Amino acid sequence: MREAFGTTFDVPPGYLNTAAIGVPATATAAAVGDAVARWGRGGIGPGDFDEAVEAGRRGFARLIGVDAARVAVGSTASQLVGAVAAGLPAGSRVLVLRGEFTSVSFPFAAQADRGVRVAEAGAAEFADRAPDHDLVAISAVQSADGWRVDLDALRAARAGGTRVLLDVSQVAGWAPLELDWADYVVGVGYKWLLAPRGAAWLSVHPDAPPPRPDAANWFAAHDPSAMYGLPLRLAGGPAGLDLSPVWFAQVGAGAALDWLTGLDLAEVAAHCTGLADRFRGALGMAPAGSAIVAVDRPDAAERLTRAGVRCSVRAGAVRLSFHLYNTEEDVDLAVRALGG
């Protein structure tokens, strides 16, 4: 058992795989377990999950610096990005990063039959090419290697008329964010937000073209009378994009985000990037200011796994990720495994 930032985690030494799946605080796991136990006794109903859904919505809004009224609730990033993609005018020009996570790029590529054109650009040229497109879609921190996009450059592109969609799934929860300027901000809960899989959110700027509610459903009406029959009647604003919630995921998200939003995220970022840069330095790599590190060395995954380090392989390299429950013990374990 580890203590970190005022709570406890039942996380083993060497767990450096948060970028794939985060480990919940014991209080979050207990909240989900209690809800499951109540369900098992027939003691819970659909309405009993509503407050958790709203707590998650409020929490995500606070993490990215927007009002909760801007935020829609979903279950996956691709489902929410898909609503944005479906709402683009036919013939729109979209720019994505070369090698971008497919939940960001595929929804736009799937609109090719409407003439939506998707181009790729490398990291060095991305910001320069952004103004030549109607919308740019990019992860604020790249899943494969932890590269951080120049948000100021994208904000400048938006001021020139380019719409901006940001996926914050690999940064929200370990770094402070102020993204009220972005047109669309999407994120999932099961990584750095330490919630179960099945909770995701989309923030929509009041000036942005509205996404298309292709998954329109009873919950998006926010009116029990809308469970049956036509006409279509959805809630106004982003809430009209809500997906019927994955109940137990939302219980965990509500508990996790309620705790996370009470932390000093600048302190969390210093902790996470400090560990990551300590690891990088031990391997002769320059500091990067990211909580995610990619190591391209022969047999690295096998050596780390033998040493008890949990990690992932992405884009041909080993990926390690350092969150608030990690310590220097984890860094040293990984460094020794790699002969650093």
From TrEMBL:
Keywords: Aminotransferase, Transferase. SUPFAM superfamilies: PLP-dependent transferases. One of its GO terms (molecular function) is transaminase activity. Residues 49-287 form the Aminotransferase class V domain. InterPro entries: Aminotrans_V_dom, PyrdxlP-dep_Trfase, PyrdxlP-dep_Trfase_major, PyrdxlP-dep_Trfase_small. The keyword Lipid metabolism does not apply. Gene3D superfamilies: Aspartate Aminotransferase, domain 1, Type I PLP-dependent aspartate aminotransferase-like (Major domain). This is Aminotransferase class V-fold PLP-dependent enzyme. It comes from Saccharopolyspora cebuensis.
